[in-house]
Amino acid sequence: MTAFLIRRLAFAVVTLFAVLTLVFLLVRIVPGDPAQVILGDQASREAIEAMRVRLGLDKPVWQQYATFLGGALRGDWGVSMVTGRPVIEEVLKVLPWTIELTLVSLLLGTAIGVPLGVWAAVNRNRAVDYASRISSLLGLSFPPFVSAILLLLAFSIALPWFPVISARTGSAGAWFQSITLPAINLGLITAAYITRVTRSAMLDVLAEDYVRTARAKGVPWRAVVWRHALRNALIPVITVIGLYLSILIGNSVLTEIVFSRPGLGKLIVGALNQRDYTMLQGMMVIYTLIVVAVNLMTDLAYGVADPRVKLQ
Amino acid sequence: MQREQSGRSRSAQACSAINRAATKATSSFSNDFSSFDKVEAPDKATVKITLKNPVPGFLGYLANYHGGNMVCKKAGEEMGADFQKKPIGTGPFEFVEYQPQQYVKLRANKQYFRGAPQLEEIMYRYIPSDASRDLAFQSGELDMLYGRQEQTWVERTSKLPGVKVATMELAELSAIYLNTAVKPLDDIRVRQAIAHAIDRKGMVAFKGPGVSRPSVSIVPSGYLGTDEQAPLYPYDPEKAKKLLAEAGHPNGITVKTIHTTLPGMQSVIEAVQAQLKKANINLDIELVEHATFHAKIREDLSPIVHYQAARFPVADIYLSQFYHSKSQVKTPTAVTNFTHCKLADQDIEAARVEPDASKQKALWKTAQEKLIKEVCGIPIHEQMQIWAYKDSLDLGYELKGSLNLSPAITEKTRFTK
Fold first, then answer.
1. For residue A177, what is the enclosing H or E element?
2. Partners of residue B314 in chain A, C-beta under 8 Å
3. Which of B29, B236, B336, B397 is deepest in the core (most CB within 10 A)?
């Protein structure tokens, strides 16, 4: 177990280094000048050059890379080229919003998806099964920004229950109002994925000999399904949840924008539009760290779900 | 928007603010003040400005717009580069907080010299999604809204109960700029053909007469020095075809433009593409994201550039930025001249320092005529600024226009219910 963790952490360091280098180069390859964006379209070439010097963009790329890498190793992600404030400060301010949205959506998706998948598998080719398959297909086909607008039209305009600007803080009620619609929007899509995978895994497991044996022994059907079958069907479900957690963080970009909610997604799109190199670099590192951490946790969860899985 | 430190001579503060705006290291608007020779404070209530030469629209540079905003000297000196994080000035509202991509929060400056503002706080929210912005306004979470520059949007929003929609100045001139140094645009007959193929009235009908108006010159209408009767090329696609044939292109031509994906501008260039097609001119549009568009056109990579802009309303600014050779892109002093035209340089420079107002206007008129005749730029239409706000919001003045392109919130702005 310890060797496994050390190996994975070493792998994470290499991944992080590769991402740092790639992001550093990519943001500079994309056309667009941060100095121009900051100063606006009436700025003279002289003013833009002066700003480039101030931002350190006049230095050779290798020198900029060395400065960036040196800072990163010391835990210093630099300051935003646009706001002049430390990148880590800006990222940490909005990170809790993204994590909160992702986790609540995932919990909602799992809470709906797993039981629905099990129910559909147990009732294969019956009305319940067809209904769950159609609804999960709908969930997968709906682009998140379309469902977000539909949710707002229904529950913020027609029925004024929730705010359009989902950025309220201060009390449990305000938190609930701000998280509900964005979490439903992402949670339903997650539920669609999980339902399909759970159904498919359960169908495989329910056809196994040991399930038939358990039933022949007189074990109650409910216990067979939930204790024997589901536990064995969980490995692919955990894989999907792990994978989808990373996708969810990406999907949160559109949801954050439509619901006007603070978060990494909104910040990253703004930084990209403004060519805020330092901010983009810092955020990509955070994204990479989250994905690496989620993958690690997914691997560890296999062992918990099925003790036969040994982490080597 | 800000609040000054008390206890200092106001005139000394003003001198310091103007000098700061005129200094390259601290201001991106320093070029606007290049004709300022000396700024002095002979007493506590007087600021004396000595100019190197007459400056058209001089008072505008001292208004609260761009470099004219007053800056607290002490804060500017002590905070240095950090001043942008907490700006301090002289306005009715003071800066509280800025959260990137989220909001700017301002609160009333109770000591404002024209009286305490009637609003306690202003939250400017950044809501990039058009649909979400509209819905937040509809649900009552926003009191004022930046509108879409579309006729249908204006009609739809005007019908909402308790809502006012304002169509205001400054209009942005939508124009195409032709690189006269590259083939086939180096041939004036080709450029004239393009000018004849643009239907300005048709474009206004397409955008909507409630949100746009026909262009009158290569400078927006209503500016000091605009030639309101400029000799623009009339719409005549048959003549355009003839001119192309004369230029050796009987089967038409293909020209390229690099263009932004901003929806308002994209719809215009696509309509231009359709108009040009009628004259056998095939406009090849390469769509790129907005920051990339700005980078590429400044690299002189787009033979035709579509640009939409409003400027300080004096002809000198528009002519200097878009048509003077000093502003030519890819030069050390570049701004936004994409045309490689320089035939009006002398007129623009002479007008800038001409003390006689009528002679000055005549020089600007000549410059516009020359540039139009040479087809360096072709104006398409003028796009008005669209804002919507609750009818319970009393701005405290009659809204006609704003240099900042948004209605100013002053100390008199209040809610009536």
1. helix A172-206
2. none
3. B336
Contacts of B132 in chain A (CB under 8 A): 149, 152, 164-165, 257-260
Closest CA to A295 of A15, A3, A32, A2: A15
Query: Which phi and psi (to 5°) does residue A216 adopt?
Result: -65, -35
What residues 171-210 of chain B have any CB closer than 8 A to a CB of chain A? none
- Convert the pLDDT of each residue in A6-36 to its tens digit: 887 888 788 888 888 888 888 888 777 878 7
| Dmax (CA) of chain B | 74
Looking at the complex, does the CB of residue B298 fall below 8 Å from at least one CB of chain A?
yes
Shortest distance, CA B136 to any CA of chain A (angstroms): 5
Q: Indicate yes or no: CB of B101 within 8 angstroms of CB of A266.
A: yes
User: Which of A26, A33, A41 should one mutate to test binding to chain B, selecting the residue with the greatest count of B CBs within 10 A?
Assistant: A41
pTM above 0.90, yes or no: no
- ipTM at complex level: 0.82
Give every CB contact of residue B28 below 8 A, 6+ residues apart in sequence.
A39, A40, A43, A47, A51
